[in-house]
Sequence to fold (218 residues):
Amino acid sequence: MKLIKIPFIIAFALAASAIGASYLFSLRSEAQPTEYLWYDSLQGLHELCRAKYRQSHLYTEYARHAEQDSLHQQAALLRALAYADNVQCANCRKAIESLGGRFHSPVVQHYTMVNTRTHLHHALQAKSDLHEGITEECLHRAIEENNRYIARLITWCDASDIAQIVILRREIATLDQQQAEQAPYTVCPTCGAISNELLHTSYCPHCMTEREKFLTFE
Ligand SMILES: [Zn+2]
Fold:
């Protein structure tokens, strides 16, 4: 009788070990990207987040260079751009992680500095490329997947980028002129909206953050 039971005990032990091993393995291995519910939206958001990450670092370098050349107003603008992109990168990253994805920071290259005029032109080109390229694609994907959370974040990014394009164009056009006294640059810490208008609302028009919480760059 005992001899008959032994193969059953061995088979049972082997099966239990296999189940245990597969359970432990499943805990260690990450979910495949294609298993994410919002796969397309997350892919787009990830791409946008990486672009914001790179731009934020680049504008910080540009700002440092402008400050060394005593171009204080341009340095303030570049610091404001860097901060706005950093806020948006953090928002995108939080959204990616809360929806089951994982953000991988890109390697930040060493940038060769030229001069502030060229840097402002590069910043304008990068913003225009982002607005017409990745951002629009990402927004369409999020709307197609009915992911209003991601769509709202991308709309915030785009609104800030459009304001940045307008400010950069104006800055480049008046670079050689005597600068009139102008309002400082302000950036909303929640959505990254940027402005230097003399007239403004008491709350951010995109996310309703109180104006007192805005960061000022001057
Ligand atoms: Zn805001």
